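Quick log. Single chain, no ligands specified.
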Amino acid sequence: MQVINFQKAVTFVAALFFITACGGQSNPQKKMENIESKDGLQKPAHNATQIDTATFGAGCFWCVEAVFQRLDGVLSVSSGYSGGTIKNPSYKEVCAGITGHAEVCQLVYDTTKVSFDVLLQVFWKTHDPTTMNRQGNDIGTQYRSAIYYHNEDQRIKAESYKKQLNEVGAYPNPIITEIKPFIVFYAAEDYHQNYYNQNSDQGYCQYVIQPKIEKLEKVFKDKLKK
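-> predicted structure:
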């Protein structure tokens, strides 16, 4: 993937602080409600002052899971499927491209330890958001770059950061990350969960996931779990 150079990285960080200062913060007194999705399933309710949920698609969910598991303040990471049209899709169906789902990870995080701003920084710096339905050799609509926002604060920040990054030319090509409201998350099969930690010697883990973790440890070393 392309690496943001130092000057553009500075601009990016400045943009993050600018957007946060311009009203991106949520009301600390407001609690997220149980919202029934279109298919009748309920989203989890969390106190917005401490615990929140984020859903990201950035290629293979094994990679995304391994990256975000290492951030301080991230309480849990689940691999699964979102953004599709059928209920309870299987991995085989998603890979066949017949369900419309993206491979995603759903994070539950402590907002007193890690902000959505930081999650966005990690998201955009650990995958290539400019390639349509592809991350490296992983090709298919399930590997698209996606943010499924859970509240208005997340929508504003995601759209604003994407706009800022495109304006400063952080990548050679435009960011095409889809930003849509979260509807429902389906957890993937058990063998997909905690995949890297349980299979770190496997070839894909060594050649695809490990470099992402090394980059994370270098760029975000002060944000990692001890």
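Strands lie at 51-58, 74-82, 102-110, 134-135, 138-139, 145-149, 178-181, 186-187.
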